[in-house]
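Hi all, long-time lurker, first post. I run a small reading group and we've been trying to get comfortable going from sequence to structure in the token notation. Rather than ask abstract questions, I figured I'd post a concrete chain and ask someone more experienced to write out its structure so we can walk through it together at our next meeting. Sequence below, copied exactly:
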Amino acid sequence: MKKGFPEGFLWGGATAANQIEGGLTDSKGLSVSDCYSFDSKLPMSEWSKQWKEMTHDQVKEALNEDSELYFPKRKGIDFYHYFKEDIKLFAEMGFKTYRMSIAWSRIFPNGDELEPNEKGLEFYDCVFDELIKYKIEPIVTISHYEMPLNLVVEYGGWTNRKLIDFFVNYSKCLFVRYKEKVKYWMTFNEINSVTKHPFTSVGVIEEGNPNLMQDIYQSAHHQFVAGALATQLCHEIIPDSKMGCMISYQMPIPYSCNPDDVQLSVEEQRKTLFFSDVQMRGYYPAYTARMFRQLGVNLIVKDGDSAILKNNPADYLGFSYYMSTASSSEPEKFDTVQGNLLNNGVKNPFLSVTEWGWQVDPKSFRVSLNQLYDLYQKPILVAENGLGAIDTVGNDNKINDSYRIEYLKNHISEMKEAIKDGVDILGYTSWGCIDCISASTSQISKRYGFIYVDMDDEGNGTLERMKKDSFYWYKKVIETNGEILN
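-- Answer (accepted) --
Happy to help. Here is the structure in token form:
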């Protein structure tokens, strides 16, 4: 039996380009994430609903060069200019790896160009060189909620099969340019999240869309094919590379032993596992026929698509884990939970919740690791796991985030148990290792990082970086390879 974390375990942190970089210069184009505005004078229900349903008017306003709205992800935390300082801090913590993404719209501003933007490529050369200097292994997500906005406006997003060619061209450019610098890649971030926020994931505008489910799953099919073709190219151009896929996994737990609740939890789980099944196994599972029929989806699959999927499965599975949710066949009888990805998810009375209403469930993290490894028998990467909370800077400039330490300690403890169970885990990249703009709420006050960034929700602040108590705690975790968690 394995006793603990293996030698060479990849400890590190994760971020996304659209949430940290800023740098809307040097010919970077607008991305889908650049459409999300924030106004603290409005109630949360008003500005957070953008994430749930993007409108045509909001896209027009995002394209308006004279707009007076504040778009936080266009500024990020200015990693574009602070990356050397930030990576030095990652190295001080002892990071073995850094999971990051490349902004598609920085390399191909419109997404459909034949030739890349050299300034964008040079920026990532500098980032990778800095990581290599500190012996930090980059894990690079090719598309993390940042497809060029032009591909939405001119092509209708991933509903258009032409995007397969655009993505493959973009991917090939990255592989050729960075083949000596990057070994670990992932295709799409949380690809299953398309069912909850189609605009950010595939560029489908939800407002007034009569064919939303059709567009969602047709787009997903095109991403599956594009990802498989990118996997094939990656293996050809970088022979020792590993290409992963990634899902958001919010494990559904039956609210009760009522057989209806149990069956519902299976169905909800399949809505997520469908996306990893196709990419990890290389084919559509049998249950999708009924699922598509009930959703009224009729996929257009071209000759050769099935062979492409079958011949190019992912090498490993990355997943994000923040919470679990109870599934009830009678959800109207119970309280709902925030951050819920399940259609019939309700509050689990045995779990505590975060300031944003997310349920904390480290034990289901272990269960999830075992489930996913049992299914695919391929290495697992914990690509995201973390606690969003309001952090306060003390008079002594210290930031006591003991609540974050407690959350991470409990999850890492369960991950260690999963390794003892026999799960092959590549590494652990805690989400938002430095404070960044929230994907769903566009706030920075919902902080995840070990490193505090002096900026408020409206973009004011010095951008000074400060170490939180969790910074020193995580450094000790890495130094001891997960043996000391207190």
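A couple of things your group might point at:
The mean pLDDT is 95.
The chain is about 40% helix and 15% strand.
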